[in-house]
Amino acid sequence: MITTEDKVYQAIGNAVMILLSLAAIIPIILMVTSSFTDNNTLIQNGYSFFPKKWSAYAYEWIFLSNRDTVLKAYGISAILTAVGTILSLIITTTLAYGISRQGLPFRGAITFYIFFTMLFNGGLVPTYMNYTNVFHVKDTFFGLLVPGLLMNAFNVLLMKSYFVSSIPGEILDAAYIDGAGEFAVLRKITVPMAKPIIATIAMFTGIAYWNDWNNGFIYLVKRTDLYSIQNLLNRLMQSIQALTQNTNASINAVEGLSQIPKETVRMAMAALGILPIVIVYPFIQNNFVKGITLGGVKG
Amino acid sequence: MAAKRKKLAANLKRYWTVYVLMLPGLAYLFINNYMPLPGIVVAFKKYNAKLGIFGSEWIGFQNFKYLFLTSDAWIITRNTILYNAVFIVVNTVFAIIVAIILSELYGKMKKAYQSVILLPNLISTVIVGYLVYAFLSNGSGFLNNSILPMMGKEPISWYSEAKYWPVILVIVNAWKSVGYSCILFLATILGIDRSIYESAKISGATKLQQIWYLTIPLLKSTVVMLTLMAIGRIFYSDFGLFYQIPMNQGPLYSTTNTIDTYVYRGLLQLGNISMSSAAGVYQSLVGFVLVLGANTLVRFVDRDSALI
């Protein structure tokens, strides 16, 4: 039975949510419309949802004279995300599996060793010195891949509690008695039974790698050719030159493209940076919501 | 005793492959989290790059003394704590309102709304910086060109006036986080037994009364838990938010500098290792006490939700 009160509530609720949804995407729309604005129009009238003169020149300019720089940054982001996510899943799963085994000697001490990293950390200065002076990750791909992102205690503990609560120890012990080694148990029993949590952590790790700009910002000083798409965007905000520095010669070579659409090219690049996320999002959103609920129970 | 040792030996023999499996993860934590710890002593030294951390001269608490003699120490502490406090309140209130509205809506749109408001959470901070720039840019920003003239106001040079940034940063943070935080509240509400609403309805309670007397009280424990956990992190700030969104503009430091941006600038832009490391240790220690304190309280409120 739907009462008048219900109807009123539905109407108000929908109205509020439509407004909030608009607020969420309006900045993205502004970015896209600006990127398709004629550069002079933009300089004159500012960023606008309804530009007086549309133009795809910013994209043309990027693809005709700077394709290599942009594609390379995309490629590095893609490789970083793929390698980072796979490595992270392997070391997270194996570690979580270990501390989920009830009979394991020193299990408590090892769990505390993992947990302590959530309570205390040395901060940026010692971490930076450790990575640059001891491991020399500065200006290497490892500088993007390893610091901070490769694994975190939270994901390990999250996965461990999933293992403990949804995979009965008896099954594992039975497999062991049947002669399966620990690695076989992990691969054939635990991993298949823990697919939801593994998918969730893979998704969060993948997003973290794709969106990370911090590592490149700190550890890439000279090797700008190792820039991920985020680092390229970051540099681009400071100067458009970042995009053209490697391709100075080719700009002049492309007839009619000698003028840099400085303002619109920024927004076009940002749009290209968001694009993969927007494409993937519809496919992962259900898992994303579930994952947040799962993680929320513990922090 | 002997039996115990025998059992341990047997278990070690049985589980040794598990240790092998755990090795990469344990080694990573050692490299990423434990190896840097001795480096904390740099805060008590006069750092000399040639001599390295451990070769440099000890100077006791002098770095800290200098740090706390500057006005920076007060500003970064105030900014870090106040921003986080406001974020906690604003985000929680908005997230609860959104969660309540969503929980009462019928139909398919509910899911669409949820997906859309969650989208900002997936956008990298660098790109959020661009989005904000499109609104605030001094020359061509949307506000200065379209909104302010419409209201008959003069353009504002947003990136050089510090006083506007507390509001801007709170809005940006809410834009990015509310979609995320509301999911947890929504999950709690959807877990509430619907029959109590039915009986409330029968007794004549209006929708607003149901929300006020049933939903909100039932959300209390989730709110308390999440708030306590956020308070545990109150000494840490989102570096990207405070560095990228204000575009690292000097005139804005008074309202945008937090402990994390201060440490970063000291280390990598100003080469002021002593101040930077002192601020870092200050953050680590106070942060540690707060996390432990918050976690103790959480355990007191709800054992299962505590970190350990």
Give the topology, please.
The complex is a heterodimer of chains A (299) and B (308).
Chain A: H1 4-35, H2 39-45, H3 57-65, H4 67-100, H5 107-119, H6 124-134, H7 141-145, H8 153-166, H9 169-177, H10 182-193, H11 195-211, H12 214-219, H13 229-238, H14 241-244, H15 248-253, H16 262-296
Chain B: H1 2-34, E1 45-46, H2 52-55, E2 57-58, H3 62-69, H4 71-104, H5 109-118, H6 125-136, H7 142-150, H8 165-190, H9 195-202, H10 207-232, H11 239-243, H12 253-256, H13 259-269, H14 273-301
Antiparallel strand pairs in B: 1-2
Helix pairs in contact in B: 3-14, 4-8, 4-10, 5-8, 8-10, 10-14, 13-14
Describe the overall structure.
With 299 residues, chain A is an all-alpha fold. Chain A has one domain: MetI-like (MetI-like fold, Orthogonal Bundle), CATH 1.10.3720. Chain A has 16 helices and no strands. Chain A has helices at residues 4-35, 39-45, 57-65, 67-100, 107-119, 124-134, 141-145, 153-166, 169-177, 182-193, 195-211, 214-219, 229-238, 241-244, 248-253, 262-296. The radius of gyration of chain A is 25 Å and the shape is globular. Chain A starts with a helix and ends with a helix. Chain B has 308 residues and is an all-alpha fold. Chain B has a single domain, classed as MetI-like fold (Orthogonal Bundle), CATH 1.10.3720. In chain B, 71% of the residues lie in helices and 1% in strands. Chain B has helices at 2-34, 52-55, 62-69, 71-104, 109-118, 125-136, 142-150, 165-190, 195-202, 207-232, 239-243, 253-256, 259-269, 273-301, and strands at 45-46, 57-58. In chain B, α4 (71-104) runs parallel beside α8 and α5 packs antiparallel against α8. Chain B is flat. The two termini of chain B are 29 Å apart. The relative contact order of chain B is 0.12. At the A-B interface, α1, α2, α4, α5 and α6 of A face α1, α4, α5, α6 and α7 of B.
